[in-house]
Amino acid sequence: MRYAFILAALLLTGCAGPFAPDAPPHPLITPALALLDSIETPLPWNGKTMREWRQRVPIRTVVMEEWKGAVWDGDAILINASLTYDAAGLAGVIAHELRHADGMRHECGPEGNQDRRSTPWSAYAVQIWVLRQLGEEGQAVGNEGGFCD
Ligand SMILES: [Zn+2]
After folding, report:
1. Distance from Cα 97 to the centre of ligand 1, integer Å
2. Domain boundaries in the chain?
3. Per residue of the chain (149 residues), what is the pLDDT tens digit?
4. CA 20 to 30 Å from 100, out of 65, 80, 93, 106?
5. pTM > 0.70
6. Strands (E), the chain
């Protein structure tokens, strides 16, 4: 009986697809969110507090074989369970993905995943702003080629 229950649970969760099954929460998410919430400056792109801006978007940890970082999937920010950034790096990446959740897309680059520096508060611009607020150098970790011009 118990096995039948487990099998049913597996079948139900299987609809998430083999590409990105859920995983236990990545241990750096909580410290990354604490770093984001430590930013008290109103956000230059919308005037909100960081906490107001980020709390509307769910964050899930998933197993992704192809993509080592994080992605906005239209409903949630998916963090790869194997992501190896530090907490500040992840905070910057979460801010980047939050900007995608605002509807801000990448505009250019050979793979279409870069921004123009002239675009106001693009995903990479927001990521770098967050890193600088946290006293980091402002390198968009994992996306060093973030700008096409
Ligand atoms: Zn992006």
Report:
1. 6
2. 2-133
3. 343 333 333 333 333 444 668 899 999 999 999 999 999 999 999 999 999 999 999 999 999 887 778 999 999 999 999 998 899 999 999 999 999 999 999 999 988 989 999 999 999 999 999 999 999 876 655 555 688 88
4. 65
5. yes
6. 59-62, 70-72, 77-80
